[in-house]
Write a structure and sequence with these properties.
51% helix; trans-cinnamate 4-monooxygenase activity; globular; 2 domains; Cyt_P450_sf; alpha+beta; Cytochrome p450; iron; iron ion binding
């Protein structure tokens, strides 16, 4: 009451310039009111202090960079999850990263709050290779992304596409299988089977995309593409540039690295624009209206002609498919073959299932659904060696809640899908290669069971599972149906050392493999 009386008397008293208690802007009432307002705002701010997820002590400016370093691979993040819990936060310089490591929280990010966390967070190198998100994978969530996803899915990632394309798959697979027996080394000293299988994968995808194939491993265009993809993967998947992504003031030290990325991307974009897409544009210009699309690129180019997407969208979408579809399929195929070569009894069981179901009939894609053990082997491999262990990064545009914690806007959210699928609290003997677990419990692979997310789930899941699963099963099944696959001479098994990247998990070493024609 005394304060109010003072305020009233002060406000009603005439003000004189010689009076130290009077001010031209309203005197003491203004100062007191300002003090009250500022105090109220400060108290409100303190009450709104965010309840952030736990994590290591954060240093000023550098955050957790000193403790964690640049290498944020799935196994290191799994160790941190054991210490800090199923949700924790890392402040990596200017980058705020939240990692979730439980099926319940994964469901929150990918499904329950799928819209809130549907945006993407790239990095300085990915921004170069995706044209700042023009490739659909890193496009911001919204109408543009929905349009691009539809455009890329319809000609490439549907059951109808599988039905229309499986004859092409079978032709390429059969040629590759036959070629393995064309050299004496296949039966004696062994061969690097990866080379021939990689050409097979390229031919399958390029016939689907452009209705083109490569004659052999010496085809100049194939050599150029393979070299580009290898270098692109090396540059993008490396952790060595993370420091400049976390701490922009260090970016000048990465100048040469970023320049290499930009030059490489320009060359690849020119290659697709001037050779592959130019050919399809020329053929489309001569085609009749009712001729139909001969490949996925035709459908995508028609959508461009209808102004649904831009030319840059087309180029970056095609380039992304060229790298990601081929790389993840090849990576998974190598892991499956390595596991069944190292587990001969499992390879024998796959072969027995095929013989029992098909007899002497050659395996084709429509037969895959009759072979549950073969599919269990594929699933178990994807569980142990998930091709994208942290899925693709998510981001919330607005403040959100996750596991009772506040997530500030613009936070990069990683789902450690590998750890969820290899956590001993969830899986029995997770380190053991045991396909029977997928026979006994028919776990869905396409994202409805959040214990097992090789392709993600929800709005931003990878649509390629429709294509990848039957293709992997077809290749593995035909190889096992034709040969006994063995490690190289004097080897007890293949080296299973792995090489993790920003968004990949490769077999580190390419090992010699021998084949033996079945008796």
């Amino acid at each position: 009451m005394a304060v109010l009386q003072f305020l009233r008397s002060s406000s009603s008293r005439p003000c004189s310039s010689s009076d130290p208690q009077c001010f031209s802007v309203g005197g003491w009432p203004v100062i007191v009111l300002t003090f009250v307002l500022c105090t109220g705002l400060l108290l409100r701010f303190r009450r709104r202090r965010l309840n952030l997820p736990p994590g290591p002590f954060r240093w000023p400016v550098f955050g957790n960079w000193f403790q964690v370093g640049d290498n944020l691979n799935h196994k290191r993040l799994a160790l941190l999850a054991r210490k800090y819990g199923d949700i924790f936060m890392l402040q990596m310089g200017e980058r705020r990263i939240v990692v979730v490591s439980s099926s319940e929280l994964a469901k929150e990010v990918l499904h329950t709050q799928g819209v809130e966390f549907a945006s993407r967070k790239g990095n300085i190198v990915y921004d170069i290779f995706t044209g700042n998100g023009q490739d659909m994978v890193f496009t911001g969530y919204g109408d543009c992304w929905r349009r691009m996803r539809r455009i890329i899915t319809l000609p490439f990632c549907t059951n109808k596409v599988v039905q229309e394309s499986h004859a092409v798959w079978e032709e390429e697979v059969n040629m590759a299988v036959e070629d393995l027996s064309s050299t004496r080394e296949s039966f004696t000293s062994g061969i690097f089977i990866r080379s021939r299988l990689q050409l097979m994968i390229y031919n399958i995808y390029y016939r689907m995309m452009f209705n083109r194939r490569f004659i052999d491993e010496g085809d100049p265009l194939y050599v150029e593409l393979e070299a580009y993809n290898a270098e692109r993967s090396r540059l993008a998947q490396s952790f060595e540039y993370n420091y400049a992504d976390f701490l922009p003031f260090l970016r000048p030290f990465l100048k040469d690295y970023l320049k290499r990325c930009e030059e490489l991307q320009k060359k690849c974009i020119s290659l697709f624009r001037d050779i592959f897409l130019a050919e399809r544009r020329r053929l489309l210009s001569m085609a009749k209206v009712d001729d139909g699309d001969k490949c996925a690129a035709d459908r995508i180019l028609r959508d461009e002609m209808n102004h649904e997407i831009s030319e840059d969208n087309v180029l970056y979408m095609i380039e992304s498919l060229n790298v990601q579809a081929i790389e993840t399929t090849m990576c998974s195929l190598e892991w499956v073959l390595a596991e069944i070569i190292n587990h001969q009894q499992i390879q024998d069981k796959v072969r027995d299932e095929i013989d029992t179901v098909l007899g002497e009939v050659m395996l084709t894609e429509p037969d895959i659904h009759k072979l549950p053990y073969l599919m269990a082997v594929i699933k178990e491999t994807l569980r142990l060696h998930m091709p994208i262990p942290l899925l693709m990064p998510h981001m919330n545009m607005k403040e959100a809640k996750l596991g009772h914690y506040d997530i500030p806007p613009g936070t990069k959210v990683l789902v450690n899908a590998w750890w969820i699928a290899n956590n001993p609290d969830i899986w029995e003997s997770p380190d053991k290669f045991n396909p029977e677990r997928f026979v006994q419990d028919d776990i869905e692979v396409k994202g409805s069971d959040f214990r097992f997310l090789p392709f993600g789930s929800g709005r931003r899941c990878r649509p390629g599972s429709t294509l990848a699963l039957p293709l992997l099963a077809l290749v593995v099944g035909r190889l096992v149906q034709t040969y006994e696959l063995l490690p190289g001479p004097d080897l007890d098994g293949l080296d299973m050392s792995e090489l993790g990247g920003q968004s990949s998990l490769h077999l580190l070493h390419c090992s010699l493999v021998r084949v033996r024609i079945r008796a």
